[in-house]
Amino acid sequence: MRPINPDRGVSPKIPPCLREEGYKVIIITFICLLLSINIAYADTNNSEQAKCLKCHAEPGAKITFENNETLSVYVNPADFEDTVHKDLSCSDCHPEFKGGQHPKRRFRTKEQYRIRASLVCRRCHPEEKICKKPIHARLMKKEHEGIATSICADCHGAHSVKPVEGGEVFETERNYCMSCHHQDFSLTFQNGEKLPLKVHLVYLERSVHRNLVCSDCHYWFSRDEHPERHFRSKKDYIIALSETCKRCHFDKYTKVLESIHYRILAQGNKNAPVCVDCHGGHDVIQVSKKKNLIVQKCRKCHSEIYQKYAKSIHGRALFEASIQDVPICIDCHRAHDVENPLTLEFHERIPEMCSNCHSNKALMSKYGLSTKVVTTYLSDFHGITLGFYKKQREELYKPTRPIAVCTDCHGIHDISSTRTVDPKTLKANLVKRCRKCHQSATENFPDAWLYHYEPSLKKAPCVFLVNLFYKLFTPFLLVGLGLQILLHIWRYAINR
Amino acid sequence: MNSERIRRFHTGRIIEHWIAIITVFILVITGLSQKFYYLKASQWFILQMGGIDNVRFLHRYTGAVFILLSIVHISVAVIGVVFKGWKATMIITKKDFLDAIQNIKYYLGLTSTPAQCHRYNYKQKFEYWVILTGAILMSISGIVLWFPIFFTRFLPGEVIPLAKALHSNEALLLFLIISIWHVYNAIFSPDVFPLDTSIFTGYLSRERMLREHPLELAEIEGGDFEEKDREFRNMHMKEETILKMK
């Protein structure tokens, strides 16, 4: 795009004598000119329009430029009647055609023609006036720097130019911003990515932020300021934008600071999600009610794990039966302070996570599950060791030996129901799991664990009988010995 | 006559008892804190010890010492009885049951004298056998728990929880017997209070020998058994008559 020189344009020519006469003369002349235009109006306006529209109201009328580009010269009279310019006559904007003249003009390109046309606008809307709007100031700056020429009609339209919402004075900030941002245009980042800047009011109205004004979030911008900012990529922009969220949601922000997502972001991995990636922008809605929807957010990046989860007993219950009691990603990993799940600390907290639901009697009875799975684990070797390791981690040192937890046998994201698997397969799988830590474990070894059953006559009868024997024998013996001691003391007392 | 002392325990037995005191003490505190892992006191102790792994390590190796002690004890007893002609004084006989009945009658005031016992009375024999069988059970179940992978190579997996049940229940039983029965008989019993020192010094006064082990005394001193019997009766009767005079 070539910068244009306003002197070579079609700006009104003022006789040199008037310039020399000074300020007052100019004002007087200007007033006279205005008056004459007004007088001329009544006469010419309707007749001129009618004359022009004879041809230009024909749909399909067009001109062809030298480079074979075409431009429609069709004017819809009805549309024009709605515009702010409805009281102007054609030649007010197309001065070459004044007084019934229709000179033949030549333009190389459509662009060239439109630049020329834009200069006409500046006659009534001079730069110093329109530059009060930051967006215009920015465009003008670009123009002066020779970067790009602004074409008024790009944003405002030509014959269809309509009063912006709320009239000339924007009643609300939103109206002010929407006067441009209702249009299809986009921001191009340094790496060539594009971000549409059109704001869909429908989504905004439905969002939880519907009562906020634009600058509440976009705090760099206001009616007075529309700074030009440069971002290398769309993600850079989104990261910068997410900084705005903490201004209200500081509690969440501090949690995020502890998250693995934030850590990898800080390490320079731009793929890490920030607020907007999960919550959306103008369409931010409260999602905490629908678990099905929340998992979709994690899926965007963790699709492999999502696939595994979807096939698990929990995933199937959620997707097939829409059971909302099942855990989803954030129930274990948390939403904002997402932890690194590969640490021992996280691993050691897994039984706690599972027991959030599996020790809840009311919840488990709904699905015919036993809450003893947690207690039996916690009172066995692994559970006890784990309990102490957690305490030791806090108070003594950091144990480095991983202890088998729920997920080591049941799987992590691919947890399946043990009811549907036949016991032989179950045991065979279990041996494999045992051997991860107890390398030389044999096929008998998994039976050392009573599979969450409490000993009874049916399950582990030997253990049950031994426990029963001692339960009876120990008190019996103690009562007997106690009686002996009492009798002995009694006899001694009597004898003395 | 009071100052007269009779040798009762060989130095080997005294050392054996000391080792037993130490090992059992360590085993009890490290073991019970694992059994009752959920108690605040247990958790405090385990953390003081530097963690559950340390406690388990200590428990296992102390257990190994205790097992060794038990093996030596049994071997010595067997070798002594079989090859050296020692008297199997710990064997429970019919007399022990009669003695128990006799003593209960005595406590209840149904007879005037308690049972006359030999080297070990029925209470001591009972305690000895409970602890010896307990030691064997604890040793076996303890080794199984120590090496679960080895034992499940030729035994069903269920032996592990079985061993755990045995080890844990038996431990509590032994602990209660030692802490109630043995501690009473060796410390708090009016007969010995404040402490029965015989296992530490190896000696027992003749008076106590006569009161508690008249049959053994008669054997040691030889001579007329009737005389000892009279002496024994007098000892207990004296108290009775004093009581009646009051």
Short description:
The complex is a heterodimer of chains A (496) and B (246). Helices cover 53% and strands 2% of the residues of chain A.
Could you explain the architecture of this structure?
The complex is a heterodimer of chains A (496) and B (246). Chain A is mainly α and 496 residues long. In chain A, the strands form 2 sheets. In chain A, strands 1-2 form a two-stranded antiparallel sheet. Chain A has a two-stranded antiparallel sheet with strand order 3-4. Chain A contains 27 helices and 4 strands. Chain A has 5 domains: 1-163, no CATH class; 167-286, no CATH class; 295-335, no CATH class; 339-454, no CATH class; 459-496. Chain A is 53% helix and 2% strand. Chain A has helices spanning 16-21, 23-56, 77-81, 90-93, 110-124, 127-130, 134-144, 152-156, 173-181, 201-206, 214-217, 234-242, 250-257, 260-266, 275-279, 291-299, 303-311, 313-321, 329-333, 344-348, 350-358, 361-366, 372-378, 381-395, 406-410, 423-437, 461-495; strands at 62-64, 70-72, 186-188, 194-196. Chain B has 246 residues and is mainly α. Chain B has a domain at 10-86. A two-stranded antiparallel ribbon of chain B has the order 1-2. The longest helix of chain B has 32 residues, at 52-83. Chain B is elongated and about 60 Å long. Chains A and B meet through helix 24 and helix 27 of A and helix 2, helix 4, helix 7 and helix 11 of B.
